[in-house]
Design a protein that fits this description.
Elements: H1 7-12, E1 15-21, H2 28-37, H3 52-59, H4 65-76, H5 82-98, E2 101-108, H6 110-114, H7 120-138, E3 141-149, H8 154-165, H9 168-171, E4 175-181, H10 193-201, E5 205-210, H11 216-226, E6 230-233, H12 241-249, E7 253-256, H13 258-263, H14 275-281, E8 285-287, H15 292-295, H16 299-310, H17 314-327, H18 332-348
Parallel strand pairs: 1-2, 2-3, 3-4, 4-5, 5-6, 6-7, 7-8
Helix pairs in contact: 2-3, 5-7, 17-18
This protein binds adenine and zinc ion.
Adenine (ADE) binds next to helix 4.
Length: about 350
């Protein structure tokens, strides 16, 4: 419960989540439980791995993206079986449902699993089963976005694209698009030009993390070289007025993750994010949770953090909710259904 006047409004507003790493929903409790079941040894030399409570306390003081990524990759090493991925993803959907999330597009990092001997098929089949159950139990529709780790060799991204493209989860639309994540600075978007071109040719959607720790060059690099349809994070766009105009004009959606940006020290507080600047410049934005188990905030928590910091109007909230739907990769019929749910909800509020 936040202190804003709009808390009740935000709570029941139908929401779309477009920036969520499924591996980032692994809580310290589940991490320890799976480590025991799967007989994975956690690093003894790091006192953070003494207990779930110690690990949680360490999560409360990340110093940077790379500090977080260190724990994120160790954490996901406990995920081994199809059932592990199904459990993880179903828990996320069930939590998202309590926040009134009606559609989610979920990142996963295949290279971080195949490199430890977990088959691509195990990961996708496990998550796809959770998607099926979440649709049945909660009515949540969802898509998967396969991310490439930008700090791994480009050849590995190409190999994983080929692996995915030869699989039925590609042709049946379970995997709707590709993304680019992990350490940003030093790994510019242009490195991945060829694999993004192949994806475009195959009719696959494209997004990329850009302008989280990297400057505006990473954003323009993603727009020019990767032909992305949306940008993940993108908060450093505000440093370049011309580029901001371009992004507004081209209606490229930024999937902003406010609590993540504070936890990873991108900004000191949510109030320091350029959210008002983006809205005033007509940049399309929406709010998301990124890695909620690591940053301590799910979808509604992020909405509340924004409202407490900026006091957006109901019309502005409606605008961001609609921007998320329009920028999503749901089919047209589903988009219209959600847009109509939002419209009815806002009209009946008061
Ligand atoms: N992988 C998971 N979360 C990430 C983030 N916030 N930035 C880059 N890569 C990530
Ligand atoms: Zn992210």
């Amino acid at each position: 419960m936040c202190n804003s006047k709009l808390h009740n409004f935000l709570e029941r507003l139908p929401k779309v989540e477009l920036h969520l790493h499924i591996e980032g929903t692994l809580s310290p409790e589940l991490l320890f439980k799976l480590a025991a079941t799967n007989k994975i040894e956690l690093p003894k030399s790091d006192p953070a791995f003494a207990s779930p409570e110690a690990l949680q306390a360490r999560y409360d003081r990340f110093t940077s993206l790379s500090d977080f990524l260190h724990y994120y990759y160790i954490g996901m090493s406990v995920l081994l079986t199809e059932a592990d991925f199904t459990f993880l993803a179903y828990e996320y959907f069930s939590r998202a449902h309590t926040d009134k999330c009606v559609h989610a597009e979920i990142f996963f990092d295949p290279q971080a699993h195949t490199t430890r001997g977990v088959a691509y098929e195990t990961v996708v089949k496990g998550i796809a089963e959770a998607q099926r159950k979440a649709k049945e139990d909660f009515g949540i529709t969802s898509k998967l976005i396969m991310c490439f780790l930008r700090d791994m060799a480009v050849a590995s991204a190409n190999d994983h694209f080929t692996l995915a493209a030869n699989h039925s989860y590609f042709s049946d639309g379970t995997i709707a698009g590709i993304g680019l994540d992990s350490a940003e600075v030093g790994f510019p978007p242009e490195l991945f030009r060829d694999v993004y071109a192949k994806a475009k040719e195959a009719g696959v959607h494209r997004t990329a993390h850009a302008g989280e720790e990297g400057g505006p060059d990473y954003l323009s690099g993603a727009l020019d070289n990767l032909q992305v349809e949306r940008i993940d994070h993108g908060v450093r766009l505000a440093e370049d007025a011309e580029l901001m105009k371009r992004v507004a004009q081209e209606k490229k959606l930024l999937t902003i993750c406010p609590i993540s940006n504070v936890k990873l020290q991108v900004v000191k507080a949510v109030s320091k994010l350029p959210i008002r600047k983006f809205l005033d410049a007509g940049v399309q934005i929406c709010f998301n949770s990124d890695d909620p188990a690591y940053f301590g905030g799910y979808l509604l928590d992020n909405f509340c953090a924004v409202e407490e910091a900026f006091g957006l109007s109901i019309e502005e909230w409606k605008g961001t909710a609609e921007a998320a739907v329009r920028g999503s990769w749901a089919d047209q019929e589903r988009k219209e259904e959600i847009l109509s749910q939002i419209d009815t909800y806002v009209s009946n509020y008061n």
